[in-house]
Amino acid sequence: MMGFNSSSLPSPVAAVVFSLLAVLTPAALPASALPSQATAPATTPTAPGSQTKLTGRPWKLVSLNGHDLDAKVPKAPQMTLLEDGTRILGFSGCNRFLGTYSLHQDRLSVNGRLVTTNRVCRLAMEVERDFLQAMQSIDSWKIVNGVLELSRQKQILARFE
Prior knowledge:
Elements: H1 11-23, E1 58-64, E2 67-68, E3 78-81, E4 87-91, E5 96-104, E6 107-116, H2 125-135, E7 140-144, E8 147-152, E9 155-160
């Protein structure tokens, strides 16, 4: 599993990383912490012919690799692409994650590995592993009827509402 091992960092650095991950979730961020419309890029990405924004809002996973999310998973993964145009953060089913992304028109990719907390959750580990692998291999996006589709080589890997 791709993850973050706190033993590889000095304890003060690990404490800062985990503190940031604990508080940097879409629900926990106050409105003042997110970029305002005034600081957002001049063109906020939206799907062609749609009013639904890609960035600055949480997206909840509804299907992964062609399968609806299992109802046994206690909490669905979710992600937010921050409007600053570089940071992605969210919840992967068991752990919180943080990373960076690149966006150019319909092209979207996660840069490098996502940093995650290091909890073990019996019911969600498989979903988390598959979710993180999918997120790190995407190359494009589109929004269809309010549903975000993330794809790799034109194959849909994940759908979000």
